[in-house]
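#struct-pred

JT: dropping the chains for the assembly here, can someone run the whole complex?
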Amino acid sequence: MSEKRLEQMIGKLKNKGYRITPQRLAVLNILAESTEHPDVEKIYIQVKKNFPTTSMATVYKTIVVMKEIGEVIEIAFSDGSSRYDGNKPYPHPHLICTKCKNILDPDLDSLKNMTEELVNETGFMIQSHRLDFFGICPECQKKMNLEK
Amino acid sequence: MSEKRLEQMIGKLKNKGYRITPQRLAVLNILAESTEHPDVEKIYIQVKKNFPTTSMATVYKTIVVMKEIGEVIEIAFSDGSSRYDGNKPYPHPHLICTKCKNILDPDLDSLKNMTEELVNETGFMIQSHRLDFFGICPECQKKMNLEK
DNA sequence: CTGCATGCAAATAGTTTGCATGACG
DNA sequence: CGTCATGCAAACTATTTGCATGCAG
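RK: done, full complex below.
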């Protein structure tokens, strides 16, 4: 499944004339496999396990390339941090726990209707969107109750 | 109308024990009046017109305070830039033109339903959200057609 | 082989902080 | 008057860039 995803990413890279290096592959692997929307730090740590010489710069450069060719999306937060998603590199809703920082991808079909409504009302040509919900996940709610 | 908004902001500041300085007032004025979601730069330029000695640091510090007391929201984008809204300092949808960078506040009542749906499905306790649509506004669409 | 990718270090940009001075309450 | 805010400059942090070397194609 995410095996396929990795193939897709590699294919697109080759198509665009980029080279497939071991470091890039390692970064792609994490971006393709991970459904947890990792940040740069996390990717870097992971990549170093297999490729100890890898530099932060390479991780950043790889992400820039992947964003450019539309195979990775960035989710930037107001605190300056960013998380990345190469598993579903298209706009989709996020459900973010402000306690444990986990990010889920809920299904929200009604979003399509909302977009259509917006087009009709405003005349905008919609290109993409961003929908994040912030809250406390059930697990963290339990923990908070126990602490009291 | 936004006169009232300014009063609100001032009141909250006083309540929390913060002082009302001319520089803060100037920043608050812009944040309260403006429906265009200005960035720090824009606020700074405006404030300098009336208070030439004002520093960037003061603008930043004022924004930090206003965010803390919930009277201003920040909209951070993936390119690192941020825009601020003191006119409607609560979560609401944005409609952003990627050409001219204008930001509108559309009405989308169905968002409430969406949130309820989410709570039922996931058990999350929702605290806030962020909903941005990116596209081309009607004016920019016209310009693009003329250029062809 | 040729040129793009790597990785180190230096540069950058936006934001934050420390501190002496000034002014709100 | 005491304390907090200002404004300058320095510090900081995350990201980007330049360049010599390495390696993919």
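JT: nice. The longest strand of chain A covers residues 125-136. Chain A is about 50% helix and 20% strand.
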